[in-house]
Amino acid sequence: MSIHESEMQIMMFVANDCYNATGLAKRNRPFLRSSTDFQVSTKNKFIAIGCDTHAYFNGTNGNKSVGTGCISYCSSKRSLADGSCSGVGCCEIAIPQGMNNFDISLSSYNNHKGILDFNPCSYGFFVERGRYDFLAKHLLDFGSVNTMMPMLLEWAIGNETCQVARSMDVNTFACKENSECVEEYGGPGYRCRCKDGYEGNPYIQNNCTSVKTWGHENILMSVKKDLMIANINAMIWKEVIGVPVQMVTMEMVGEMEQVSKLILDPRSAYLFFTSYIEIVLSATTTPTVANCD
Known about the structure:
Blueprint: E1 7-13, E2 15-20, E3 23-28, E4 31-32, E5 38-40, E6 44-49, E7 52-61, E8 64-73, E9 90-94, E10 101-107, E11 121-128, H1 138-145, E12 148-155, H2 162-168, E13 179-182, E14 191-194, E15 198-199, E16 209-210, E17 232-233, H3 245-252, H4 256-260, E18 279-280
Parallel strand pairs: 17-18
Antiparallel strand pairs: 1-12, 2-3, 2-11, 4-10, 5-12, 6-9, 6-11, 7-8, 7-10, 13-14, 15-16
């Protein structure tokens, strides 16, 4: 589960529609039922595999019905290409926003006659984008290897807008200190996120804490001086470890002569013209750092 993205991954069953020489051999039609707090993420795709395949899904978005599908066809293995899902052996479609329930169905136009030797079954499934790549061999063995696929659900709090939820009862309002309410994702309800400069769990009291980076971490900044740009990679040795980071950064934004004073060992620095200057400071001690877990 991702608090930051307001999403969770589940494993969803793969639909199948299989045939033999006498006709339909087996069929599986999975479905999802969830509360309105969860929606099928548009980061998923609906994919169908088969050479005699009509795959489709029916779902709901609140009180509205939604549904779509795709057709995949091929008459021989020679027409197949690994990685391609354009309707020859494999087809895919985008997910409508806001869908929270669905049923997957598959059908065949010719009971896979003439292709049973390399494609006896059709398959249909929801899957997170980037988690599946079509291979021609899947027409024969996909179902024996993959009975479930990873997909994403989005979640939100209630059905109210941020303004309404905040005005109803401040004690039940889910967004805690140093967080903000967001509702621009397109569904009912609202979500919370830590404000800029804070990180943590916005749904837990006092959990969004200030983000602080100090000398033991890489400090990356851009400094531009008229037409001359330099890139400096400098190691700050123990003689200046005690200098506060704020003072060091003030030196960096000055003239090049001032920046050069930070380099105690000339062998560790190199200058060249680029579109910006990067200064990476690495201290050899570990100062106190705020706990951002």
